[in-house]
Amino acid sequence: MPKRLTEMPTDIWTPLIILWISVLPSIFMSPMNHSQVLPGGSTLGLNGLSEEERVLNRSKRGWVWNQMFVLEEFSGPEPILVGRLHTDLDPGSSNIKYILSGDGAGTIFVINDKTGDIHAMKRLDREEKAEYTLTAQAVDRGTNKPLEPPSEFIIKVQDINDNAPEFVDGPYRATVPEMSIVGTFVTKVTATDADDPVYGNSAKLVYSILEGQPYFSIEPHTAIIKTALPNMDREAKEEYFVVIQAKDMGGHMGGLSGTTTVTITLTDVNDNPPKFAQSLYHFTVMEDIALGEPIGRVKANDLDIGENAKSSYDIIEGDGMDIFEITSDSQTQDGIIRLRKPLDFETKKSYTLKVEETNVHIDPRFISGGPFKDTATVKIVVEDADEPPVFSSPTYLLEVHENAAIKSVIGQVTARDPDVSSSPIRFSIDRHTDLERQFDINAEDGKITLSTPLDRETNMWHNITIVATETRNHSQISRVSVAIKVLDVNDNAPEFASENQAFLCENGKTGQEIQKISAIDKDDPKNGHYFLYSLLPEMVSNPNFTIRKNEDNTLSILTKHSGFSRQKQEVYLLPIIISDSGNPPMSSTSTLTIRVCGCSSEGVVQSCNVEAYVLPIGLSMGALIAILACIILLLVIVVLFVTLRRHKNEPLIIKDDEDVRENIIRYDDEGGGEEDTEAFDIATLQNPDGINVFLPRKDIKPDLQFMPRQGLAPVPNGVDVDEFINVRLHEADNDPTAPPYDSIQIYGYEGRGSMAGSLSSLESSTSDSDQNFDYLSEWGPRFKRLGELYSVGESDKET
Which ranges does the record mark as transmembrane (predicted)? Predict the structure, then answer.
């Protein structure tokens, strides 16, 4: 055995010694008649027994060692001997043959079938495959019969330190708040080693920092990176580059190492107060700047960023705290000064403000560093601007009686120029708000006068717009609304509220109320209406009817006797005088028509005509209506029958001898053209100096009574056609009787003559002196033929 071991390569002495020590106890504890397999030429066999004993005793399987070792990455000049198989049945002759099968048999591992030596033929890598499972068996070389059952064993690839540590997740990025204390956790890195962690120190890693000291440190075994210096300031240095090394073999000399980088960024904390760039700011603004417009910006510098740099601004002192406001720009963190109330140069020319900026998010850890706010002074100078006139009131309300005289003053508006120059003001009425020109205004003093009569019952309110313009700068204009209320005067007489008709039953009784009458008055007195009713003087002694005034301002008509008869008199007329309580009082006479009717016993009117007395006996009105309906129905049936027969006689198919092209129906009706004036009366549109009154629409039947407007007064020596068309368009748009669809209105008026005269030859003189065309021959060859034609005409006339 020692001799065989010395034949093995010296490189495998160490593992073989270890294996030999591990195998020795099993050898001595096992029976001596067991087969043995030992590394390095150890033999596998049985004890030397006689042939008789071998026959009488059952052949027991020899002891099997279950693993061999071979170094990885071995690259000698010859194959490496892994081990040797031997059986006790081998007497040293060549009749025994050893067979190897399993993982890598024949390719990686080869066995000498005579000696049982196993060699590794290739370079092995434990990281690719750590062990191989093989099966060995001894057979008879001549018959290939197995001499023993197969034995399974394992060849393990023994690790060497051939893999350096690797940082799979590197490079790393990490953050840590600035101003952190020593030992604050930053991040953790991890390296892996492909070597065997259970064999030796090949995979035992130790971490260290190559770059990044003295700012950061790392735990050698856990690889946790921590801060090593206190109060690192982001504003001084924001980013650090740290190099981490991982070394195997426990960090001892000869171990392999790997590195990675960690980029550590300091995150911001609010450790710096804001500071205005300057202590005094100057701004200039025009007095006519719009409300809410920015006037200027102030800026406080803050070394912090993000949420820690957010600030709020306030005006804490100054004479314009109610005039100005300051807000923060969320993007730039600037303070924006805006206008809250209008400025007036003539009232105040400058303002002084004190503004303050304060951090929104304050870190309590650094509050001892001082107040996180700052102040600055802002001076704002107001410059004069040319302002439009200012009315003395934002709106005006005027009242005028509807019987006010033309040209009478109904009110006055006043305005002034707020500028120092104080330009004179001229007043005018916006005619788009006074299309009917009912009012005028004095351009100098703003007094409003009446141009046309007013009628409260037609229009109770008038809303016009007064325009004030500076005489020195016509672009400076102001407008104000003027509401004019028309006050009532007693200029309308009362009249019946409903139709002037009443019904009287023939079987009525004396003193019976046959009708209750109420009156209406278009006027609107302050104390309400109170009407007086009376009969005409000649009807006071009327033998048939009398009247009675009720407390509810109504009138009751009473009968003086009974026994009224339709045959005797069917209709009675009763004139009634209605007077109001106005000053002066107004009255009107309305005639009440009283019809005598036949009524039921309950007093319900059934018939008010006399035909019931002239109809034959036994034929009532209902029967007469039924007979008439039957006659009409028969007539309708006859007409339908004749119509159907006529259509049936007409051929439905065109005969062959007829030409389809001859079946043409001609419609030659071209309409009335300009002579057809039934749809629209355009006479007024053709001449605005003509009749200027309201003409009702003829294409529809109006449901509402449209009150005509007062027409425009004729204008001598010229007509404003554009204004005329606008007035007519306004009337058409506001006509309540017009249909909801569009209708065409033709404006055929072309205006009067021109000062330049007419260019038409139709109005030219026909005298011989005016018809001289000799000048045509002087215009050149192009007009020669034309001149000859007119010359011929002249010679013919002379002839």
Answer: 12-29, 613-642
CA–CA separation, 203 vs 795, rounded Å?
A: 137
303 by Cβ neighbours in 10 Å (0-12 / 13-18 / 19+) ranks as: middle
| Amino acid at residue number 297 | R
Distance CA 33, CA 151 (A): 17
The half-sphere exposure of 608 on its side-chain side, counting CA atoms within 13 A, is: 14
Helix (H) or strand (E) holding 25: helix 13-29
Q: Are 404 and 450 in contact (CB under 8 A)?
A: yes
Strand-pairing partners, residue 555, are: 517, 549
* Centroid of chain to Cα 796: 84
542: alpha, beta or left, given left = phi > 0 and alpha = psi -120 to 50?
beta
H/E element holding 505? strand 501-505
Angle, CA 282 vertex, CA 279 and CA 285 arms, to 5°:
150
Q: Is 688 helix (H, G, I), strand (E, B) or coil?
A: coil
Whole-prediction pTM:
0.43
Whether pLDDT at 619 is above 60: no
Q: What is the pLDDT of residues 107-117, one digit of tens each?
A: 888 888 777 88
Question: Which backbone phi and psi does 393 adopt, to 5 degrees?
Answer: -145, 145
CB–CB of 363/270 below 8 Å? Answer: yes
Token pair 């109770």 in the structure block, residue = 460
SS3 content of the chain, % helix, strand, coil (to 5): 15, 30, 55
**Residue 243 pLDDT more than 90?**
yes
Predicted local distance difference test score (pLDDT) of residue 745: 59
Mean per-residue pLDDT, 552-567: 84
Residue 451, classified by CB atoms within 10 Å of its CB into exposed (0-12), middle (13-18) or buried (19+), is middle
Nearest to 241 by CA among 173, 166, 170: 173
Burial of 396 (0-12, 13-18, 19+ CB in 10 A): buried
